Amino acid sequence: MLSKRGIIAALVGLNLLLLAALLSDVFALPTAYAQAGGRGGAVACLTAKAAGQSYDVLYVLDGNSKRLHAFVPASVQTRKYRPVGMRELDKDLGK
Predict the structure, then answer these.
(1) pLDDT tens string 17-30
(2) Cα 51 to the center of its chain, rounded Å
(3) Do the beta carbons of residue 60 and residue 43 sit within 8 Å?
(4) 66: alpha, beta or left, given left = phi > 0 and alpha = psi -120 to 50?
């Protein structure tokens, strides 16, 4: 028979093992799975401070369609963005 001290030591060891398993799962980097077929789009994103405003504007450049899209926060409470405009780069650059 195991003594009381032996049972407590076994339970402490089991708890440490479970804690290590939990922490290894929590701190593991997420896996990104890329699209299997086809070529990715030519998209670039950047932010810039709006003139006279306290928020940033998110600009998305779509290289395939040659368009520049602009998005601003929909409200302060949400993390959603709303589109505010789009430019045709071929027309703007005279091509």
Answers:
(1) 999 988 887 776 76
(2) 26
(3) yes
(4) left
